[in-house]
Amino acid sequence: MHQSTSLRLPRAGGTFSPFVASDVPRHPIVAQAPPATRIVYAAAHVVADPLAAIDPATGGAIDWEATLAYRRHLWSLGFGVAEAMDTSQRGMGLSVANARELIARSTAEAKAAGGMIASGIATDDLAAGEPATLERIAAAYLDQAAFVERCGGRIIVMASRHLARAARGYDDYAHVYAKVLGQVREPVILHWLGDMFDPQLSGYWGAGDLDGATEHALAIVRDNAAKIDGIKISLLDAEREVALRRRLPAGVRMYTGDDFNYPQLIAGDASGHSDALLGIFDAIAPAARAAFAALDRGDRARYDAILAPTVDLSRHIFAAPTYAYKTGVVFLAYLNGYQNHFHMIAGAESARSIPHLVRILELADAAGLIVDQERAVERMGRVLALAGIA
């Protein structure tokens, strides 16, 4: 039965109504091997250290044990970890020094756990907002690539804000990517992050529209296919992803970064499927793992049934402004007891409204993703009280 609790949730117009706990079964959290039929990375968040005497305005400090514990949780469920990506607030609070330490620590932990890991490289060693030459941009990428390789990890080449500013057109992108890919040891994952995730990446690949950008990205993939494991695109456009997926060279994977349409993209069609590298998998890992188990068995109906309610949650967490989604991911980790506070580096816990957070609780509970309803209710109550809501 549905159970009403003493928690009263604020509604539009200043009214309140009780939180009614869902009786949907919880998804089990048990150690499992990686999925057999898909490669799946969860982009993982970082946990701030609220007791560090560091002003969040300067980025803040990381609680390393809690941060690494969450990665061990993801590995135990069979997910790979995509490290130092935008989910970990890369470029939005995570300092360059912390990004490097995060990569080093997580790669060591992955080896100990037998887990899969790939880490983002970017050009954030260069001064923010300042122009840079193409050669300096390539050198910044390569310096971070060498660091990841020394740690023993795989590389995800993130889109560069500096390159987006400096490039005059496709040829400049082709030059930088060819130089970087020509010097990495192993095939990498390219990352195309849409400007809804990062407005500073508008016009990436040197085209003024997405059709042109798609052609440019595909040309770079084809010219460097031997050094590319796959490409992740985060454009929230399922048709564009499928169209590009069908045109990729043999052996180059499509990793979906579409947090709106992931069930059908991963399930695929007669022409193929997408693998996954998703921020939402940080938040819905138990449900996603259960869905992949069904997909491995060939049970598409069960796969769809498990993931359908998570899409409502994901679309809410990634609602505009999309780049604020990290707040919802961390909030859910707090509700579920994976960290003992709702505090983020750079003070990003303030990026979403109280009604937005309230809806996360309800949607996560409806999807069977609240581990302990009593604990979540108590923690939601703390957040409301801090906001002056009795």
Strand content: 5-15%
Compute the number of strand runs: 10
**Biggest sheet descriptor:** 8 strands, parallel, barrel
Q: Which whole number gives the mean pLDDT? A: 96
Kindly provide the radius of gyration, computed on alpha-carbon positions and rounded to a whole number of angstroms. Answer: 21 Å
Indicate the overall shape.
Answer: globular
Largest beta sheet: what is the strand line-up? 3-4-5-6-7-8-9-10
Distance between the termini: 27 Å
Number of distinct helices? 14
Q: Tell me the helix content.
A: 40-55%
| CATH-level-2 architecture of the domain at 38-285 | Alpha-Beta Barrel
What are the SSEs and their pairings?
Blueprint: E1 3-10, E2 16-21, E3 40-43, H1 64-76, E4 80-83, H2 96-113, E5 117-121, H3 134-151, E6 154-157, H4 161-166, H5 170-181, E7 188-193, H6 210-223, E8 228-234, H7 238-245, E9 253-256, H8 262-267, E10 275-278, H9 280-283, H10 285-296, H11 300-317, H12 325-335, H13 354-366, H14 373-386
Parallel strand pairs: 3-4, 3-10, 4-5, 5-6, 6-7, 7-8, 8-9, 9-10
Antiparallel strand pairs: 1-2
Helix pairs in contact: 1-2, 2-3, 3-5, 5-6, 10-11, 11-13, 12-13, 13-14
Tell me what the structure shows.
There is one protein chain. This protein has helices at residues 64-76, 96-113, 134-151, 161-166, 170-181, 210-223, 238-245, 262-267, 280-283, 285-296, 300-317, 325-335, 354-366, 373-386; strands spanning 3-10, 16-21, 40-43, 80-83, 117-121, 154-157, 188-193, 228-234, 253-256, 275-278. With 390 residues, the protein is an alpha/beta fold. It starts with a strand and ends with a helix. It is globular. It has an eight-stranded parallel β-barrel with strand order 3-4-5-6-7-8-9-10, surrounded by four helices. The mean pLDDT is 96. Helix 7 (238-245) links the parallel strand 8 (228-234) and strand 9. Helix 1 (64-76) crosses helix 2 (96-113). It has a domain at 38-285: Aldolase class I (TIM Barrel).
